[in-house]
Amino acid sequence: MSKPVVLLMGPIHAPSQARLEATYDVRRYWEAPDKGSLLDAIAPHCQCIVTNGGRGVEAEVMKQLPGLKMVANFGVGYDAVDVPYCQARRIGLSNTPDVLTEDVADLALALLLGSLRRIPAGDQHVRSGAWAKGGMALTQSMQGKKILILGMGRIGQAIAKRCLAFNTEIGYSGPRKKDGLSFPYFADVVEGSKWADVVVAALPGGAATKAAMSRAALEALGPQGTFVNIARGSVVDEEALIELLGNGKLGAAGLDVFYNEPNINPAFFGLQNAVLHPHQGSATTPTRDAMGDLTLANVTAFFAGQKLVTEVLPVHY
Amino acid sequence: MSKPVVLLMGPIHAPSQARLEATYDVRRYWEAPDKGSLLDAIAPHCQCIVTNGGRGVEAEVMKQLPGLKMVANFGVGYDAVDVPYCQARRIGLSNTPDVLTEDVADLALALLLGSLRRIPAGDQHVRSGAWAKGGMALTQSMQGKKILILGMGRIGQAIAKRCLAFNTEIGYSGPRKKDGLSFPYFADVVEGSKWADVVVAALPGGAATKAAMSRAALEALGPQGTFVNIARGSVVDEEALIELLGNGKLGAAGLDVFYNEPNINPAFFGLQNAVLHPHQGSATTPTRDAMGDLTLANVTAFFAGQKLVTEVLPVHY
């Protein structure tokens, strides 16, 4: 029997991709010179797409594959997958939750501490030789900071746990108050941002959370405030973010995610009060290995006719 | 009555220095063109020296002041003060413990996370525009790391508390096993460094801890290991540190302190696997304010003939 066809939309963690390609007849969409011909060729027998969180997959591609039954997303955030289309066609969807929670939360703290204590600026101050001519300015302290976590899911709660070890106060905002959490809840993000010294965005991307951190919320956070984003570029009004960082109406930012990454707005490059990072939330070797294992386990379950391991939408066999 | 004379060896936090100068007849040693004349002029009535942790005060200066009874050190580390000389002459000594513990521990985590997750390198990757041409390499994860804390005093324990929130394992080394701590204790730093993925130095400076993190310990930590130093440059064999970072026999370092700072060894400037920081452990506005308050409280206690607030060595009135 020939290997089942899998359409791969974009590259994933290289060792995981190698395993996928050893087991399945993998077609690389992003490398195909003629996408239409590729889709025509596999249309009669392609039941499975694998993609990464940044690339996702659009309805236009899925429409060309009448036999498609399942999309496996390498990444917890599947906002780049056209979920309403999958639902309408009853296409299954898996993602890679949990295995990346801790690393993403670690990076949120690295960016928060890096912003407050100015780690990249300090590195430059030493490395350039400037230190011999004078010290660096005093910075903010993490101590006693009021931290609003925007999106108190798995990752948000992992961030909260870490922040508490730094003598901070936690509040949260999101679509609803969560049972079993004693932190103050702010139904309104602007109200939460008024209360907070720091806002950490940890909510899913997609239409429902577009610019959830609005211009008004950024202004409420204010000139002493710090905004950290390890979620998606889409969850903040990025135009306002750039403007307010530039004119000092927002104090600082630590950003792992951006609109249209990696081709981000070059206005970020000159902002000295931002710590920039190239979407590395889950980009550690052990976590990418685990994400690959989970992606392959979902694909294996699919071809075995079983329930997906980490199911977002069920497969209809 | 004229204001009491205070000899200030080097500048301290500006608002605290302004308060000191409003209350006392402060003589600025570091600005005096002729140190000998300054000391001669104040010798008959100078009972108190104020200094900062970096500057300290040497026996040669104290010998010129026969009436000296007290040294107030702005900083918790008083290794730059000639303590044996103070003891021999029964000169009192105060420092500023506790108020800076939390900020220094925060910076240790900022440097540890910054090293493991490569925060300054990420910032450069984005800011230079390189991201559009390709992603950054995967990094190490903080998860599950074995962290040896070298010096489990107030600051070491504050670091341990934070590290535990990141799902790490803690061990410690130091002059003696501490009662009430359940973490594994390593009497030998090399043995501890073999066990560890990360060593964080948090022990006092001075002769007793010189190169406590030896070449052998750095080699035991190894090519995947990370060394973080928020203590003093003297506690590590810096020549070995530079060599092993350069040839990859030590994985990475996060360094707030150096030999001969701020005129540090320029070999550090080219090390891409080190996160460098200009001795900013306590350099936040609220903490420097608190350190200044405590320094002034000790000076006030001294001139009132009272026990020092945070006494290292007692005053003999």
Can you tell me the overall shape of chain A?
A: elongated
Kindly state the number of beta strands of chain A.
13
The largest chain-to-chain contact, stated as pair and per-chain residue counts, equals: A-B, 56 and 57 residues
Domain count of chain A: the total is 2
* The named CATH superfamily of the largest domain in chain A: NAD(P)-binding Rossmann-like Domain
Strand content of chain A: 15-25%
Largest sheet of chain A: 7 strands, parallel
Order of secondary-structure elements of chain A: EHEHEHEHEHHEHEEHEHEHEEHE
Helical/strand content category of chain A: alpha/beta
How would you describe what is shown here?
Two copies of one chain form a homodimer. Chain A is an alpha/beta fold and 317 residues long. Chain A folds into two domains: 5-98 and 286-313, Rossmann fold (3-Layer(aba) Sandwich), CATH 3.40.50.720; 101-276, Rossmann fold (3-Layer(aba) Sandwich). Chain A has helices at 14-23, 35-42, 59-63, 83-89, 101-116, 119-127, 154-164, 189-195, 215-221, 238-246, 285-303; strands at 5-8, 25-28, 48-52, 70-74, 92-94, 146-150, 169-173, 185-186, 198-201, 226-229, 252-255, 274-276, 311-313. In chain A, the strands form two sheets. The first copy, chain A, has a seven-stranded parallel β-sheet with strand order 8-7-6-9-10-11-12. A six-stranded mixed β-sheet of chain A has the order 2-1-3-4-5-13. In chain A, helix 1 (14-23) packs parallel to helix 11 (285-303), helix 5 (101-116) crosses helix 7 (154-164) and helix 8 (189-195) packs parallel to helix 9 (215-221). Chain A is elongated. Chains A and B meet through helix 5, helix 6, helix 7 and helix 11 of A and helix 5, helix 6, helix 7 and helix 11 of B.
